[in-house]
Each structure stands twice: as structure tokens, then as C-alpha cells.
Write a structure and sequence with these properties.
This protein has about 260 residues and is of the alpha+beta class. The chain has 13 helices and 6 strands.
């Protein structure tokens, strides 16, 4: 079963208590007891060790014309993660990790100023273009070589550690999905498995090339990927000609992303 995430009127990502209960495969007859225990327990939130606060960490869920007799609640992704980890479910690690990723994205977004978030959005649009993705990768490679005496040795090993995937792991994912990875590059495999990962990779390359630390670059990559998905931004190969369906892009920013290629020319 897939994790179902809602977005509140304030833009906060939430999951429902009944859905989380189903994901964790907990005994149905214990729902009433467990939900009350969840909401009264103490957790290590980002802002301190405390109990959940109504309308901050959770809120009653009321549906019109609902026939359900179960009391339901909207839970913040951070609270849902803590609940999953506190449970005795055999699948708690799987869903806790997914919730942790969502929680990290929200934390990163909340830490950005309005101007920084606007800049990231513009950068996300630029990195929807293949030419910008490839330029960012080359800039990252140049920085890597400068730190290794001009050598690119072990670049792909390093890259796998930074990005969180390798050619071997992508081949395995394709095989698990019944797809044939033979003769495909990492880019071609990602296009079939998860196209938005190409955008995330480009963002990570860009910030690493700027000298940002790996954690910051990954957080920005994860956030950009989430933004692109929610805005339904498309990814385009602009190398041969323009694309009338491509998003409106800040041309100055696009040239900055490609600046390494211009310097090399």
C-alpha cells in the first residue's frame, strides 16, 4: 500500500490516522485505544520534547456524509513518523523513512526565506532543461577534479555516494519493475524509473559545484524535486531546439548554470 499524503489549506503535508493505521497493519480492534495513546504520548519533535498539540501536530478530520464510526485525525508528517517508529509494526521502518523524507523537505522549505524559495523555484525551472542538467554535472566534475589534483579517478563511486544511487542499483530497480536495463546509461534508466530524479541530480550537482556541503545540496535537490512534482513541471531536452511547452525560465539564471561551458569554449 502506498503512503497517501494530503496538503492542508495552509500548505502543510498531512496523513490521516486511519490510513497510517492501515499501512502499519495494526489490529483494527485496537484503533480507538491506540489513537488516543498516540495523541497523548511524548515525542522528540524538531522544536523540543513534548506532547502533540492540537491544530499544530494534528487536527480532527470531519467528512460530510461519512458512514464511518471511527474517529479520524489529520497528522503532521513529523508526528506520523514518530508514531510509526513507536509502533510494533513490522513495516514501520519503510513508512518512517518515507515520512522522514517528507518531514525533511518541510523543514528545508520552512528554513528558507521567501526570496530563497523564489530563487530555488527559478533554479528548479532552469534545471528542467537537459542542457542545464549536463552543464551542472560538468561544473561539479570540474570541482571534483580540482580537489583531486586534476584527476577524475573514482568520480562515479563518489557520485553514487553523493546522489544515493549507482548504475548497479538502477539496473536492479529496472529489473524489479520488469524493465530491461541492458545497454542503458544512468540517464536513460532514470528516465524510465523516475524522470524527476534527473532534476534532483542537476540541483545537487549545481550546489556541489558552488561549494555547498553535501547535506545542503541533497536537501535542496529533494525540495526542488518535490516542488517540480507538485507544480507538474515537465523535463525537456532543449539541446537541438526550443520547446514550446517548456516552463518560462529566467534566461540570466540559465546562462549562470551553463557558465562553466561558456568559460571552456
Amino acid at each position: 500500500m502506498e503512503l497517501e499524503v494530503f496538503v492542508s489549506n495552509k500548505g502543510t503535508k498531512v496523513v490521516t490516522a486511519t490510513h497510517l493505521f492501515q499501512l502499519l497493519e495494526l489490529p483494527v480492534h485496537n484503533y480507538g485505544v491506540l489513537i488516543r495513546r498516540w495523541l497523548k504520548d511524548v515525542y522528540a519533535f524538531r522544536d523540543g520534547i513534548r506532547r502533540p498539540v492540537v491544530m499544530k501536530d494534528y487536527a480532527p478530520r470531519r467528512l460530510k456524509d461519512s458512514q464511518s464510526v471511527l474517529e479520524d485525525f489529520y497528522l503532521s508528517v513529523e508526528l506520523a513518523k514518530h508514531i510509526a517508529l513507536h509502533s510494533r509494526s513490522r513495516s514501520k521502518m519503510k513508512y518512517a523513512r518515507q515520512l522522514q523524507e517528507l518531514s525533511d523537505e518541510e523543514g528545508a522549505m520552512n528554513s528558507l526565506t521567501k526570496e530563497e524559495l523564489t530563487d530555488l523555484l527559478e533554479l528548479t525551472k532552469a534545471l528542467c532543461l537537459r542542457s542545464c542538467q549536463e552543464a551542472a554535472e560538468q561544473r561539479h566534475l570540474k570541482v571534483y577534479e580540482s580537489r583531486n589534483g586534476g584527476s577524475s579517478a573514482n568520480w562515479w563511486i563518489y557520485r553514487a555516494h553523493v546522489l544515493g544511487y549507482s548504475a548497479d542499483s538502477l539496473r536492479k530497480q529496472m529489473q524489479e519493475q520488469g524493465l530491461n536495463p541492458k545497454g542503458k546509461t544512468q540517464r536513460q534508466m532514470l528516465q524510465q524509473i523516475d524522470p524527476y530524479e534527473l532534476l534532483r541530480t542537476g540541483i545537487i550537482d549545481h550546489f556541489n559545484a558552488l561549494g555547498k556541503n553535501r547535506e545542503y545540496a541533497r536537501n535542496m535537490g529533494d525540495l526542488a524535486k518535490s516542488l517540480a512534482k507538485e507544480m507538474k513541471l515537465g523535463l525537456f531536452d532543449d539541446r537541438l531546439s526550443g520547446n514550446m511547452f517548456a516552463p518560462e525560465i529566467n534566461l540570466d539564471l540559465m546562462q549562470q548554470v551553463k557558465s562553466w561551458q561558456q568559460e571552456r569554449a
